[in-house]
Amino acid sequence: MDAATWGAELAIGEGRGRIYVVEPTGPIEDDPNLTDKKFPGNPTRSFRSRAALRVTGELVDWVGHPPAQLEAMKQGLARLAAQGIEAIET
Predict the structure, then answer these.
(1) pLDDT confidence of 37, banded at 50, 70, 90?
(2) Structure pTM?
(3) What is the rounded average pLDDT of the residues 53-77?
(4) Is 88 domain-assigned?
């Protein structure tokens, strides 16, 4: 849930981010941006797929990180971007 919360909080756009419950319609793989780099064994249950995902619900009552923690994360990402480090691995 923590990884989903970060994704919703850091999403580009106006308004509150959204967290959807999805199920794969095809093959999935561990997300290499998290698995075995930051969280060996994929405890965040973070996956990716080239196939479509079926939305089965939306979590609307999620609680975000404290403002200071969110700001620290944004500043850290800005530092990485200034250094030319890509956050997304393809």
Answers:
(1) low
(2) 0.74
(3) 95
(4) no
